[in-house]
């Protein structure tokens, strides 16, 4: 019986020791942190042994799914400050509600205190947005251009890095060798053609006829 009482007392004392006085108050089950932003964690001294004043510096680690280690977020944190701003890299977490914090210290003995499960939200898309198109189609007389200031010109493109250059559609009016006559040029060409025909008829048809009539008289 004596041994049973001693064993029960020992187990109760051990449980009291393991509980410690650091009690996390943030995060709790309803807490939502955002990836890429600071996350405030807080705790209190609940009066259990050892008190915060008797504890050494703590290390704060992030876990997911209860036992999958993700990162050490802070080291050498004085437990008496009772709060700490944690920096959460955007790439480290995902949308989920199965994250926990662990507070570890080895003074006065090795202890690990667990927070409640909480949620992370990743805002937006983690993939960087692609830039908008670098140019637009210019008019037919502008040639090869880029619409954004600071981009290399066509003559400098060979010496610079890859850039996007917009090539305008080839229009017959802007490409040499494909020029089509305008309305005025068409009319003037037709006029010249009619004049040449008239001269031909005068010289080779009308003039011989007039000459023949004259000789016949």
TrEMBL record:
Provide this UniProt record's keywords sorted from A to Z: Signal
May I ask which residue range the UniProt record assigns to the signal sequence?
Answer: 1-20
Per the record, the domain of life is Eukaryota
Name it.
Uncharacterized protein
User: What phylogenetic lineage does the species belong to?
Assistant: Eukaryota, Fungi, Dikarya, Basidiomycota, Agaricomycotina
């Amino acid at each position: 019986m004596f041994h049973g009482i001693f064993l029960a007392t020992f187990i109760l004392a051990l449980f009291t020791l393991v509980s410690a006085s650091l009690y996390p108050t943030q995060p709790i089950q309803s807490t939502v942190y955002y990836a890429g932003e600071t996350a405030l964690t807080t705790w209190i001294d609940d009066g259990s042994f050892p008190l915060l004043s008797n504890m050494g510096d703590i290390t704060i680690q992030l876990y997911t799914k209860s036992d999958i280690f993700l990162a050490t977020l802070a080291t050498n944190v004085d437990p008496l400050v009772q709060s700490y701003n944690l920096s959460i890299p955007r790439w480290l977490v995902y949308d989920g509600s199965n994250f926990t914090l662990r507070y570890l210290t080895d003074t006065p003995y090795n202890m690990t205190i667990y927070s409640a499960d909480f949620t992370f939200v990743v805002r937006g898309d983690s993939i960087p947005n692609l830039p908008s198109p670098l140019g637009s189609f210019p008019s037919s007389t502008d040639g090869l251009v880029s619409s954004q200031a600071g981009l290399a010109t066509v003559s400098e493109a060979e010496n610079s890095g890859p850039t996007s250059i917009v090539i305008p559609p080839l229009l017959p009016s802007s490409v040499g060798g494909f020029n089509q006559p305008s309305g005025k040029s068409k009319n003037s060409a037709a006029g010249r053609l009619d004049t040449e025909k008239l001269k031909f008829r005068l010289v080779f048809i009308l003039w011989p006829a007039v000459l023949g009539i004259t000789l016949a008289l």
